[in-house]
Amino acid sequence: MIPPQDNPNITLDAAAMFHAVLDTVGEGIITIDSSSTIVLVNKEVQNIWGYTETELIGKRIELLMPEKYRERHAEGLKRYIDTGVPRIMGTRLELEGLRKDGSVFPLEIRMAETTVGDRFLFTAAVRDVTDRKAGEAALQRRHSIEDLIASISTKFINLPSNEIDAGLIDALRMIGEMTGVDRAWVALLCEKNVTLGFTHEWCAEGIALTHNSLQPIHVEEIPWAMEQFRQMKTVYIPRVADLPPEAKTEKKQLQTYDVQSVIMVPIMYRLALMGIVSFDSVRTEKIWTTDDMALLRITGEIFANALERKETEEAIECLMRRNELILRSAGEGIYGVDLQGNTRFANPEAARMLGCTVEELIGKPQHATLHHTRPDGTPYPQEDCPIYKAFQDGAIHHIEDDVFWRKNGTSFPVAYTSTPIRQDREIVGAVVTFKDITERKKEQSILENSISLLSATLDSTTDGILVADREGRIVNFNQKFLDMWGLSPIIETSQNHTQLMTQVLDQLLEPEIFSERLKEIYAAPDTESCDVIAFKDGRVFERYSQAQRIGGMSVGRVWSLRDVTARKRGEEAIQHAYNELEQMVEERTRELRQKQTQLVQAEKMASLGQLVAGVAHEINTPLGALKSNLDIFTRSVRKINELKLNPEMPAEFRDCPDLTKRLTVLETLNVHNQTAIERIVMIVNSLRKFARLDEAELDEVNIHEGLDNTLVLVQHELKNRIDVEKNYGELPLIKCYPNQLNQVFMNLLVNASHAIEGQGKIFIRTHHNTTKAFVEIQDTGKGISEKDQLRIFDPGFTTKGSGVGTGLGLSIVYQIMKDHNGTIEVESELGQGTTFRMILPIR
Amino acid sequence: MTDTATAPPTIVILDDEELVITSLQTFLDLETPYRTVTFTSAKLALQHIRDHDVDLVISDYLMPEMDGITFLSQVRELKPDIPRIILTGYADKENAIKAINQVGLFQYIEKPWDNEDLHVIVRNGLEKMQLLKKLQIKVQEITKAHAELNTLNQEIIRAFA
Predict the structure, then answer these.
(1) How do residues A832-841 score in pLDDT, each as one tens digit?
(2) Are the beta carbons of A625 and B23 separated by less than 8 Å?
């Protein structure tokens, strides 16, 4: 196109016509020169951009384009002028324009170039494509929503039921993002359609989740919305603020969450309302098209299907799990067989017993897998299999004794039941339950074993055994029983019972008591009995019986008879021997008692000895002081007497008669005291020597010393009444226990003094021969009667009357002499006196 | 050591019974020139022996605080040269003799004792002590002389060397 003013060949009319043409063209026409200056625009350009022609002519073309295109334009133009290579000429481009009011709009442009003289001119035909673009976008959006819904729908079909919840939220997100809402949520009717509970929610970024924290809404609170939902209507609220008064609860509820526009679609399943899905706009109000609403309704349907499927699948899964649990926990093996004879299912217990896995059983022919061979090893034809018979004849088959075969080729005894499975009256297979009866078999064999053991025991026992039931009928007996009573083996029937009893009673000494006792025992079936039966022929039986019990119930009675004749005789002999023994024991006891008395006495003497020794020691300390002091007295008196003779002393002192007299008295008393102390010293010495504690061991002892010490101690008994005449011969040292021997001397001397009434004499004589030493103590006392002489050495014998003697003295003397391997003899004549002679061995 | 020639010998007597102590002390004071120091407590007696010159010790055998053998063995540890005498009752004679042999006593005196015997035993003990002392002095003199001689010897050797 050539600008008219530059072409002289063109007339003004032509120019006017050219302008008219230009202005009638539906496109905007712009011409610029090589420096981008606008040289021509038509009316449409003014319409599109909002400038007048005068505002444009002479301006740069960049005025009409947004900033971002301006550089590109300048470069493109320069390159074209420099190189002449057309890059965009003739092609349709989609660009953007900048209106006078500052708005940017899409435009379509085609360009051409012309050369007028040496001027390059560029002309562009421009079309505003705003409306077309908007239509395209709407279409595009609708396609996307359709695609989205299709993809959601597909997705839900393939989604496992446990992922449906997550899928729903994901779908809410996709729709929400696509439609540009701020929040999308699902609420479902629950509690028998009384409440609406919020279950799924999605929020755009920057919007807080709300409904998860909400309490379920009572449907009665939102009657307006519910009514529409029940009629399966979509509730579309472009402006929440405009809600009618009857929807005030709904309005309040929505405003609480800043909802400005909302569209809520009912979720229907088989014409029943399940819940709603809602799309909230919080930030702006939103206009929904009818198309959108229709698509959202489809979404509601998809959700309904998904939710329904989820519910159903969960219910199915729960049921399956329960069945599985039953199968798993069953203690018996369970498997199912279809009409082809293949195993369709099996529980783990079945697999365990069959030594394989459940998978190894399923799909395999049952009979060939585990039931192929009979217990005896011969093949088991499938036609005979009772398991298959169940679905052939429709009856339940129960087999108590068969074998199943494990995977490893071994077998085990089983009991099983095959039950036909019916579905709509058609038999479709059979269920087999089976039990491993190895243990039961084992128990059976143990039982058989015990029974045979029992009968062997019965026959081998030495007792006669008879077993009768509660009514007294004979159940069992052993050979020994028959032998004992001399019976024939045919006593089993009740007719023979009377005959048997007669035969039995005939042999007894007291048949009436026997019968009586029998009645008593049968009257009390639970009791045990034990009695003795005497026979006419002298035999004696012990009869023992005990109830036979099964599970605490008495079912009969076991009789056991033992011939105890020999034992009874033995018992008599034992009784006799026992009596003799008892006599012996009595004698021994007497001896023991005697010995014990002596031991007690010896013990007494030992403690007495310790006491004496202790006393002697205690006395010695003050006695020592006393003796020493007396010595000092004696010396002092002597010294004073010497001083009195000293001529250098004053005469008053030397010749004082009172002093002289008192000194004389002191001298005399000192001598007496000396005697007294010496006597005390002697007594103490004798005491401790008598006790001879330091010589309790066997020792070589001078008998005479012992006699003398003892005499000192018994001095008080003798006093002036009795003369002691000692006539000691030569005696070697004698090996003995000195303290014990001293006790013998003491006892004999005391006895002698007791025997003498009034004045008298005691003679002590000693002598020895080559083997023995003799010690004689003779008194002139009243003597001992011949009768008493026999008993004087018995323990407890005394003639002294109570309180005087213990009667133990001479028995102890006797025992001590015996312990020394010595003896003691007595010679006595009444009225004349007594002599005791001790004889001790010399070694 | 103090001058042994002039001071009377000192005897320590230990007995839990005042009765015995009085007897022994009176006798020794009257009839001998010896000085006596008496104790009823073994601890105090040991203290005294440690701190003073003592020439002889007499101790009872049976005492509640410490028996005589233990006491005398401690005396020996303190001053081994002092002659030690024990006073025994009859009942414990055997044990006493055993102990005497173990502890190494000079003598034992049996209760009731004879003062004359006691005097002789004490005198002998003291004489022994005196002799020991003299011996010690002599030994010291000899040792000293020996040392001097040695020194002299050394000097002679050095002079001639």
Answers:
(1) 899 999 999 9
(2) yes
